[in-house]
Design brief:
Length: 159
Amino acid sequence: MILTERSITKIKEKAVRYPRKKSAILPALTVAYRQVGHVDEEIYKEISKIIDVPMVEIAEAATFYTMFPKKPRGKYLLQVCNNISCALRGSDSMIQHLENKLDIKLGETTADNKFSLIAVECLGSCSTAPMVQVNLDYHENLDAQKLDTLIDDLKAKKD
């Protein structure tokens, strides 16, 4: 088993709140993601057993949403919004800047496993474009200098 007893208990507690078992899929995936840092077929199987929903339905939900990485990621998952508002305000140059600063390409993780970089379609922050989501936190109205400060602060963190 991959999921801890604590995560299993959380999933069960969330599942009983819903009249339909399928409604517990996203909360269960969230618990698993927060524990493991990604979701994959083994986790889909475990969740399926816990909430009694077919594994294929768990996989369908997980693969639809970009908020659930499907493979291990770095400590900090940098999700660059690349939808129209962010694109018009420079998200492509932000991606290029991050690739150069971190010495990785989109979809890759730094050698020290600290940063992973991906582009996503929309993070719903159009009025504050361009923006990057780092794990669960939004960083908005970015430019190269703000990105450098953000990355340097994350590199310096001792947590």
